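Aim 2 progress update. The chain analyzed this quarter is reproduced below.
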Amino acid sequence: MVQISATAVKELRDQSGAGVMECRRALEQAGGDVARALTVLREQGLLKAEKRAGRETFQGLVESYIHSNGRVGVLVEVNCESDFVARTDDFKTLAHDLAMQIAAMKPKYVSAEEMTGGNGESPEEVCLLDQPFIKDPGKAVRELVNEVIGKTGENIRVRRFARYELGAE
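Predicted structure tokens:
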């Protein structure tokens, strides 16, 4: 059995935001390797997200973002299961990041399920959840949402958004 140091647990916790015991278990599974433990935690987050996908989401918040030049504005509705989670910093940060993503990347749809067939558009370009995340292009927006689901333990859903740009139709 590999000895897991408190320093390794703290480092993994700082990188992932997961709980102490989750970090310890992930490090044990990964043989003490922090990078592999991060992968383990991501996979666990995906499993949690899949388990919670059917749960109702009637709480949440509407986040607004106005780009610094005042020419682009976004409103995004992000739902979760409880008001408690809607008030957490992780949830608020997610909503803000989603609003910035929408302002920067101009998606037309939340997910590929909303796309109408035969228009030749790529989901990675026009679907918010399939786009590469602007702060970490190696990760899709859907993965970002799943990470927050893993942290909060609740289903989270991006319900709708509106993007306004001066002079655009």
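The helical segments are 6-16, 20-29, 34-52, 83-86, 89-105, 123-126, 141-152. The chain has a mean pLDDT of 87. These observations will guide the mutagenesis experiments scheduled for the next reporting period.
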